[in-house]
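Hi V.,

You were right to ask for the full record rather than a summary. Here it is.
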Amino acid sequence: MKEDPVARFVERFALLLSDAGMQRMPARVFTCLLTTEAGRLSATELAESLQVSPAAISGAVRYLEQVNMIRRGREPGERRDHYALADESWFELMAHRDKLLAAWAVAMADGADLLGRDTRAGKRLAMTQLFFEFMRREMETLGDRWRAELAAKGLG
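Predicted structure:
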């Protein structure tokens, strides 16, 4: 049996995504979609390509839809849904960190107030709050710079 280099790439990149915190099956589905020419596949096609059950695909696409990395659609006259990459999948993934960073900053501020901002623990939480707020501001700037980069290369 000949090894499929694309399948090997999908598994290798999906492993990198899962090492970074993404669940393994959504990472495999996302990478599989990245490697298709059309950037879209049905659940059945995904299951066949990844050699997994339809149930595994169902959970993975639900997660990827929730984080706006893919979108579900159906062509006129088709009976099956297909799953396609969002136009800015990577940007969407990173942009959603903005909401997470904001929630973390609020939690750290609450913790710092609770422990007392003059205590070592309170100062540590306050510094973490400032870091999350800084990262949130930087994500906004980074998004603007990314769109400018795409436009400069004729892709935006």
